[in-house]
Amino acid sequence: MRKNLVVCLSNTEYEVSLEVRKIYQLLNDDEAEALDMCRVIDESGEDYLYPKKLFAQIELPSIIEKQILLAA
User: Which residue(s) pair with 8 in the sheet?
Assistant: First the structure.
C-alpha cells in the first residue's frame, strides 16, 4: 500500500474528523479513487473515505515526510 501526504483544504461536513491546513496520511485505494473519494487517516487515527476535493496532495523533502509518518 502506497503512502502519501495530503493537506486538508476544507472540513465542511467533517469538522470533528478533519482540521483545515493539517497534513494527513493518504492511503492508496483504487476503488475509492474510482468514486472520486480518498482514504485518509483522520483525527480518530482510523482511515475513512472522504471526497477528494477536500484535500490537495503535497510533496515534502523525504526527511520531513519520514518524521511526519513516524509521528502519526
Answer: 55
Using CA atoms, how far apart are residues 24 and 41, in angstroms rounded to an integer?
6
Q: Where are the domains of the chain?
A: 3-71
Look up the CATH superfamily of 3-71.
SH3 Domains (2.30.30.40)
- Rounded to 5 degrees, what are φ and ψ at 21? 75, 5
Nearby residues of 19 by Cβ (< 8 Å), 6 or more positions away: 8, 11, 43
**Alpha-carbon span 3 to 19, nearest angstrom:** 20
The one-letter amino acid code at 11 reads: N
Q: Could you report the average pLDDT of every consecutive run of 10 residues in the chain (72 residues)?
A: 82 96 94 96 96 94 86 72
Tell me phi and psi for residue 50, to 5 degrees.
-140, 155
